[in-house]
Amino acid sequence: MKQSLGAKTLLFPTPVLLVGTYDKDGKPNLMNAAWGGICNSQPPSVAVSLRKATYSYAAILERQAFTINIPGEAQMQAADYVGIVSGRDGDKFAATGLTPVKSELVDAPFAAEIPFVLECRLVHHFELGLHTQFVGEIVDVKADPSVLAADGLPDILKLKPMLFDTAHRGYYGVGAFLGQAFSVGKK
């Protein structure tokens, strides 16, 4: 028999998402957000939920755009830092050694060193309680060639995205390939 754990924010795996924004004065910022993921296929869209207290909250509303940077294991320390410190208190790009790059498609920055980026135009936002969910239409996906497979699509084992353990607040890497989706269930 399963043991009840109560109503908690437990979901596995949870991606580590670095949200890129410009504030009202044009200062680039990154924040670490775990509450997010793909939310629609057509148009391709991603959702991320932020508290109003975050510096990025007002920036997304102001600029109507954001980026989602997917850090690899090599960016773990920088990814954690941008989740600890507020953009109100300093320049997170300078502090981490990351380089802000201005998107040519949306009014938001991304980090040059982060290997995989979604550029998003804000299309909806919903107050859910403590958090507001921002839905961004993905207008482009950018990937470093080093994380692409022979077919030109991202290779998860090359990207090595970080996963967040919501129960114990730790970071993990991706494990072994288990089977082909939409195939193994046919047997």
TrEMBL record:
Residues 9-157 form the Flavin reductase like domain. Its cofactor is FMN. One of its GO terms (molecular function) is oxidoreductase activity, acting on the CH-NH group of donors, NAD or NADP as acceptor. The keyword Flavoprotein applies. It holds the Pfam family Flavin_Reduct. It comes from the Bacteria. SUPFAM superfamilies: FMN-binding split barrel. The keyword Heme does not apply. SMART domains: Flavin_Reduct. Keywords: Flavoprotein. Belongs to the flavoredoxin family. This is Flavodoxin. It comes from Geomonas silvestris.
